[in-house]
Amino acid sequence: MQQQRQHTARHRASSARRFLKKKVGIALAVTATAAVLGSATSASAWTGGSYSGSIVTDVQTAAKFDFDAGEIPENITANPDGSVTLSMLGSCAVCERTHGPELMRISPTGERTVLATGQIGEAISGNARGSDGTVYYALWAPGNADRNGVYKLLPDGTPQRVAALPADSGPNGLAVDSAGRTLYIADSLKGTIWSVPVSGGAVTPWLTDAALAPVPTEALPIGANGLRFHNGALWVTNFNKGTLLRVRVTTTGAPGPIRQVAGGLPNIDDLSFLTPWSDVVFAAQNGSSSQNGPDRVLVIYPDGTYKPVLTSADGLASPSATAVLGDRLYITDGGVPEPHDPKLQTATINFTALLAGAAH
Fold first, then answer.
1. DSSP at 142
2. pTM for the structure as a whole
3. For a Cys staple, 269 with which of 104, 193, 198, 284, CB 3.0–4.6 Å?
4. Taking the CA of residue 329 as centre, how many other CA atoms within 13 Å lie in the half-sphere pointing to its CB?
């Protein structure tokens, strides 16, 4: 039995290593739109028809990165002051893992500050911001139980591990509940969402289900990926199964039933919401990371209908995450396919067109 467990752990760690190598206020008009698009019961989702212009416009490159130096953006948090926090994978096929991962903040003026680093062979995957401003990040350290898990930055900038995960776990997306008490972690290898107090302590497998599990036969076996706490529920994507899921958090803190919001979206990665009140989602579809579909950013309406709003024609190159701040949409591009173009893109959300999409 011990040998079997060791073999399973080695297999999962090997899957993680393959992943690390390859994968590489709001205006009144916004509030009005959010009120209309707030939930499936109060809004009609898009079912086709015309739009008054594009939903996303004015796409620009806000920052470019050095792929060979391991600057491969994976995840993003948009902060209230207009800065963004980026996770940089650090590992890639061409750089042969000669650079460790970084957690980086970019100010509104473009100034870059490295907040935390990892070791060669590790990845910094998800990051999140608590309601009190605390920064959390997932450090994926394959096979290393002494480092694998989730960390937070103390007020002096020192990293502190708050969630120690098994060596064969794949910590990815992070989410903090609205009360600021519980941190949730998407495990891309075990088909599990873990929970832990934000102050640290014992990690609990909050939910384990086949709907969260990877597909072992995929070239890049990744299950639960993006994660957000929103309107009393956890929203999670499954990269291999191409699904967006919603899991209600009950009054006791337990998971409710898993509801599939949307499907048929291979390589769906991380997601964000139009506003804190709206269930309209912007999701990255990271097809070129495993050559399994298109590179797209989608708007997904509450009833599961969706529409591509950006494609590779807009410069997308392995888009892995989105973030929204006011009318600004941010997209991280890992730049996995040659000629390797990792970058941070920004765009403007056209709320009139978005509202028109919900009115049909």
1. T
2. 0.86
3. 284
4. 28
